[in-house]
Design goal:
CATH class of chain A: Mainly Beta
Order of helices and strands of chain A: EEEHEEEEEHHEH
Oligomer: heterodimer
CATH class of the domain at 10-53 and 144-235 in chain B: Alpha Beta
Distance between the termini of chain A: 15 Å
Shape of chain B: globular
Structural class of chain B: alpha+beta
Order of helices and strands of chain B: HEEHEEHEEEHEEHEEEHEHHEEEEEE
Strand content of chain A: 25-35%
Helix content of chain B: 10-25%
Largest interface: A-B, 14 and 18 residues
CATH superfamily of chain A: RNA polymerase II/Efflux pump adaptor protein, barrel-sandwich hybrid domain
Strand content of chain B: 25-35%
Largest sheet of chain B: 6 strands, mixed
Number of helices of chain B: 8
């Protein structure tokens, strides 16, 4: 299972890509595989402030409803509107077209513990 | 998990990538390779799906009083059945509420076959045996010896015809035939729980694996419980424990069409008559979300901002293009008032619709 080297991961199987003061969130390939076919994604509103570790949206598969949690704190600046009609992008391209939201990172230090790709790979094997 | 039962096809499910879960006392596949939507699509869009529904029970009823007995313990009019016909029906208790919903197969005037729900099997059999004491009938639980498969979808008939020794084309909707299937004898009925053309196949356990493999070789796609539930929910078919239970009568559950009040006495008739006269306390409606979301079981339904009932079965319907559900609401809200479903604290707008939510392709 692919784990891109430029991403950081949480124990809840979210990924975050940090570029300057912007962070992009999604769920890992492992998470989408475990959830099965995703049929609905509930996105937050642009402008909402989210704490690290806070549930910011919902991913629903055929049988399950799962919250998704923010790897870092920030203010929502963009949501992936394509997911409103094509939720299965999370399955088919978890690290690319299946991204969920972008935030402007706040200087709030309450950051959850993040793993790099190697650490996450080890975590998956445990 | 040790007290859970396995069907003769357990190893075949595991080999096909089935994710095994406990269901109605059995270990059964919820989906294969985690792709329930692909399974759903195989059945809905032109292929065929094969389902292991061996967990369902089969009860043989034989004897000179067989018809009289079944008229008394089931709700539908068994006298209307011809040999080789199947009928959707129900078992009620004296309170008029559901013990189970069933199908009745008429072999001849003195021999019938009932197909019952797995979770209700022991309760049903105990009830039938108790009532049978007053009739000249024998009631035999054949569930443990019988494998039940469903083969559903446009290609079902072509696939099944390759392994049966009789003409499937001659079997009409809700009719059945007995004869050679693979290397043994069995029953094939043109019935199902998906809204597609297809069959249910009763065979001895000894040939279960052979029949399964032969049908998979013919292109049938193994279907797990998740896709099965999607297919039945899209048709609005009732499921015990959801739309029907021992807390509702046929009046609430919109199942008076299988409850024949003019056929003579039957268990629960008096209570149903009373409920009809007093009026239902709640009624089933079909709804489709106009807002975004998935209306799931137990989500609350509001009418004009006031709580009215809850969803009993709901889903994201790929074909209907959104969230659809069946729900109980107060009788006065069946046709009146503006509907919303509460999803994670938000009221999502919905409109009343009819079941099936998508076109049925059963062969009438």
């Amino acid at each position: 299972m692919s784990v891109p080297a430029d991403l950081r991961f949480t124990k809840e199987h979210e990924w975050v890509r940090i570029e300057g003061d912007t962070a992009t969130f999604g769920i890992s390939d492992h998470a989408q595989e475990a959830l099965g076919d995703i049929v609905f994604v509930e996105l937050p509103e642009v402008g909402r402030s989210i704490d690290a570790g806070e549930a910011y949206g919902v991913v629903e598969s055929v049988k399950a409803v799962s919250d998704v949690y923010a790897p870092v704190a920030g203010e929502v600046i963009e949501i992936n509107e394509a997911l409103e009609s094509e939720a299965d992008l999370v399955n088919s391209d978890a690290y690319g077209a299946g991204w969920i939201i972008k935030v402007k990172i706040s200087d709030n230090n309450a950051e959850t513990e993040l793993m790099n790709a190697d650490e996450y790979t080890t975590f998956l094997e445990e | 998990m040790s007290d859970l039962l396995k069907t003769p096809l357990f190893d075949a499910h595991v080999a096909a990538g089935g994710k095994i879960v406990p269901f109605a006392g059995y270990e059964l596949p919820v989906q294969y390779s985690n792709r329930a939507l692909k399974e759903y699509t195989a059945v809905r869009e032109g292929a065929a799906g094969i389902f292991d529904i061996t967990h369902m029970g089969q009860v043989r009823v034989e004897g000179v009083d067989a018809l009289k007995f079944l008229q008394y313990v089931t709700t539908n009019d068994v006298s209307k059945l011809v040999d080789g016909q199947v009928q959707y029906s129900a078992l009620l208790n004296e309170q008029g509420t559901f013990i189970d919903d069933i199908t009745t197969y008429k072999i001849n005037d003195e021999a019938y076959y009932l197909c019952i729900n797995a979770a209700n099997r022991h309760k049903d059999v105990a009830h039938l045996l108790k009532e049978a004491a007053n009739f000249d009938v024998t009631v035999t639980d054949e569930s443990d010896e019988t494998t039940l498969l469903a083969l559903q979808g446009a290609k079902a008939q072509a696939a099944l015809q390759t392994i049966v020794g009789f003409d499937l084309e001659a079997i009409g909707y809700y009719k059945f035939a007995r004869g050679q299937i693979s290397s043994a004898g069995g029953i094939v009925s043109r019935t199902g729980y998906t809204g597609e053309d297809g069959f249910e196949i009763y065979i001895p356990n000894s040939i279960a694996v052979d029949v399964w493999n032969a049908l998979v070789e013919q292109g049938a796609v193994p279907i797990g419980l998740a896709a099965r539930d999607m297919l039945r929910t899209e048709m609005g078919y009732a499921l015990y424990g959801h739309e029907i239970s021992d807390a509702v009568t046929p009046v609430e559950a919109k199942l008076m069409w299988i409850t024949k009040m003019d056929k003579g006495d039957f268990i629960g008739k008096q209570a149903v008559e009373t409920r009809k006269a007093e009026g239902a306390q709640k009624r089933l409606i079909a709804l489709k979300l106009t807002g975004r979301g998935i209306p799931r079981e137990h989500y609350k339904v509001f009418v004009d901002g006031v709580e009215s009932g809850e969803v009993t079965s709901g889903m994201h319907s790929p074909l209907a293009g959104g969230g659809v559900a069946v729900a109980y609401v107060k009788p006065e809200h069946v046709t009146e008032g503006s509907l919303t479903v509460e999803i994670r604290g938000k009221q999502i707008e919905a409109e009343r619709t009819k079941t099936p939510f998508v076109r049925s392709n059963v062969r009438r």
